[in-house]
Amino acid sequence: MKTSGVTLNELVAKKTASMFGPKTNFNSLSETQKNQVYAGIVESVGKSNPQINLRMMKLSRAAKGVMVLSIGVSVYEIYTSDNKALETGRQVAINGAGIAGGWAGGTIAGLMCGPGAPVCVLLGGFVGGALAAWEMGNW
After folding, report:
1. DSSP state, 138?
2. pTM (two decimals)
């Protein structure tokens, strides 16, 4: 993940070099060529990064596994309790608080982080969800 964004000047220089050669100066290009550079930048922004796609796929699988584990723990807690109705309500509250806390933590972290938002959202969501579920479980 990028820790900081790329400036427009850096994008223009990189795209100019790739389209017209490494020694070409953007300011010496004609208006048509400059527009081609800008169009190339806009087109390349829409492309995804295969490494990031792979990471997100792995994290998605891990998240599904954690959800299955969480449901399994909840079912076990309900099964082994003496008062199943009370424990069912408690487990629903804990899991609901974890979801809401994860959403809130991820949202707040995403708003605060800027270019590092994907990493911050992941951490904020995890911390927010864990804290909310922990507090609800101790309530």
Report:
1. T
2. 0.57
